[in-house]
Amino acid sequence: MSLLDRHTGFVRALRHAGLPVSLAEGLDAARAVRALDVGLVDRETLRAAYAASLVKRHTHRGVFDTLFELWFPWQVSTPSASASDAEAVGADAADAEAAGTPEPAAGSDDRSAEAFRERLRELLLGEDDIALRDLAREAVGQFGAVEGSLGQAWSAHMVGRALDPRTLMAGLLRAVLGGQLPGGVAERNARRMIQARVDRLNEHILSDVRRRLAEVRGVERIAETAVKPSVENLDILRANRADLIALRREIQPLAQRLATRLTIRQRAGRHGRLDFRRTVRASLSTGGVPLTTVHRPRRPHKPELVVLCDASESVASFAHFTLMLAYALREQFARVRAFAFIDTVDEVTRFFEQPGGDVTDAMRRLTAEAKLVRVTGHSDYGHAFKAFVERYGDVIGPKSSLLVLGDARNNYQDPATAALTTMVTAARHAWWLNPEPERDWDTGDSLASVYGRHLPMIECRNLTHLADFIGELA
User: Fold this and answer.
1) Which site among 203, 252, 453, 470 is 20 to 30 Å from 86 CA-CA?
2) 322-349 residue pLDDT tens
3) How far apart are CA 96 and CA 281, in angstroms?
4) 178: which DSSP letter?
5) pTM here?
6) End-to-end CA gap in the chain
7) CATH topology for 238-471?
8) How high is the pLDDT of residue 161?
9) Neighbours of 375 (CB within 10 A)
10) CA dist., res. 329 & res. 470, Å (int)
């Protein structure tokens, strides 16, 4: 494959993965590569040139690096077969954790595996990432080959079984701690350091497995399965624990933007009180006719926010995300009141009020203590809205912005639109953020359009949608 083919394929793969790479930026990257004299430049300099031209956000760097490793591999070997077993190929998309599964190495030479483990023990105590990468590549060649129905393939899981780095943890901890007593801050820091090195080893293993699979099956095909969406394009309904941790880091700036937008809308939404004296004075120039009224400037203040969130099992990840959003918003608003519901509603603000508290602990307490289930444990928006108006109706006032978050699937129950109208009328602003694709609205038990007649129903499946919603508030 020529350099030009690799360049165009790489840029196309970045766009397919969701990175905003324009035609002009692709040309800029080509000029940068041309200026480097690729015949002499090292691979990391080439990576830096592409990254400087094509990567706009730090959250895109992981996707960029994964695709760069596929399109510009460190070496090209001769594959021993023209195809690979479909089951074995699936291993290339497995989590890096699979590379550390503590199982006995099967089908590999015990002495060879032990020699690798001795080298690995020394490298995990050091900081030589190049040597760790070289060891990972050797281990893939030694232990990663598997025979499938269509020929030879490669498996990160097989390498993990042979190296089994997790079983080295006890000895590594003793070496790091020296004579210090176990437990406490020192041990936690040592565990964190060693785990970071193990994770890096797993990344190197997975990268080399993908490279070898790309030589067999084609880089385009492997690129489609190797890359996860960037954090702002993650589908929140399908987010796992690691995804939610990544989302948490991106929520704070969005919370600040949301608070700023709502403050601007409140300041511009209504004039201040009439300044009678200045209005009369201004009317003297028009013969005493007050053609222009003068108002006293309004005192700036933080807006108030009321969040009402569906916490049922069908939208569990979205509920976690929205409550993280409420947690981040608590410092940006004068008052944030958070409520969750399944078939009845309960206020959950108390779980997020502790300064410096962890949102994961708050979610665990919420699940155990909040009273969200009345009878069946299935979503009943209608009863939840009625219960909210009866128990918490005075929470929403003329300074409040209301956010309702959920998929609007009511299990064919009474929608109770009158209660929703009461809530929307009392608020200054109201919006509904729906985590389902708009194409799925009004299918089955969805009441998206029914509720959408009373307040704006907005598709919000990822951080990009949330950012777009915030941007349109001005």
Assistant:
1) 203
2) 777 777 776 666 678 889 999 899 998 8
3) 74
4) T
5) 0.60
6) 49
7) Rossmann fold (3.40.50)
8) 80
9) 10
10) 13
